Structure formats: structure tokens, C-alpha cells
Amino acid sequence: MTRRAQTEGLLYVAELATAEPYRRRGIAAVLLAHAFGVAAREGMERVSLHVDSESTDDAPSLYRRAGFEVRCAFHSFARTLQT
Fold first, then answer.
1. HSE toward the beta carbon, residue 60, CA cutoff 13 A
2. Could you give the residue ranges of the DSSP H alpha helices within 1-83?
3. In CATH, what number does 2-65 get?
């Protein structure tokens, strides 16, 4: 679930997902709490992650409830090329 960015003094959550049938049961919150514990035990000052701000699964509100603050928001564009 995590990748350490030690040079910045933070624990980075590279990916966090819950299978649809198990959503809204607090599983993601428990995983985040675990990440907070790992970061604290290893002397890191912050936990960071990226999220799609337009997530249809309401992920941004999960992270706000966990105490994360939005640092910046941006749009990312991609185009699939036909071969």
C-alpha cells in the first residue's frame, strides 16, 4: 500500500483501493490508520497521497475525514490512440 519518500520525511500512500462489495465499511480508514502508525514509528513527519478530485467513489471525502488537507488540485488529461 505504501512507498516511502524518506528524503522528504514522509510516507507516501501509492495506492489505496477497496473492492466495491466491501466499501463503506471502514476498511480504507483502518488502512490509513495503519499507514499513520507506520509513519510515526519510523519517525516520519507526514503521510501524503494523490487522489482523483473527481472520484465517483467519493475518495476525497474519505481523506478529509482522515485529516488530510488538500495541497493542490489539478486536471490531468490523457488520450487513447487507436492503432
1. 10
2. 27-41, 59-65
3. 3.40.630.30
- Mean pLDDT by groups of 10 residues along the chain of 83 residues: 67 90 94 92 90 81 92 85 89
pTM for this entry: 0.79
- DSSP3 helix / strand / coil % (the chain, rounded to 5): 35, 15, 50
Unique residue bearing C-alpha cell 512507498? 3
Closest CA to 19 of 31, 28, 7, 11: 28
**Cell, residue 57:** 467513489
Q: Are 60 and 16 within 8 A, CB to CB?
A: no
Q: Which amino acid is at 8?
A: E
- Please check whether residue 1 is in contact with residue 15, taking contact to mean a CB–CB distance below 8 angstroms: yes
